[in-house]
Amino acid sequence: MFLATLACAQNAPKPQYEVYAIRYATLPNFQVSGLVAGADRSRRMDIAMMVWLVEGNGRHILVDAGFYRDQFMKQWKPVDYVRPSEAIARLGLKP
Prior knowledge:
This protein has helices at residues 2-11, 70-76, 84-89, and strands at residues 17-31, 44-56, 59-64. The chain is α+β, with helices and mostly antiparallel strands. It has a three-stranded antiparallel beta sheet with strand order 1-2-3.
C-alpha cells in the first residue's frame, strides 16, 4: 500500500511557484561591515530593501514583511521609500 501511495505522489503534477523580489527602498552608502563580519570598514554600498512574495497553488505568501519603524528610518535614512504594504498594493494585492 505504501509503495502505491508513493508512486501516485511521484506522478502527481508538482505545483508551480514563482518568487518575486519587490523593492520598497534603498539604503544608500551602507557600511558593508554592518552586513559581513570582518569586512573593510571603509567599504560602502547601496542596498536594495526588498519584500519577498511567493505565488503559487492559488496563494500569495509574503515571506519578508519589510520595515517602517521610525527608529530605523532615522538611523538608516532609506531613499525612494514606500511602505512595504504600498509596494504590495501596487501589484493589486492586500498585505
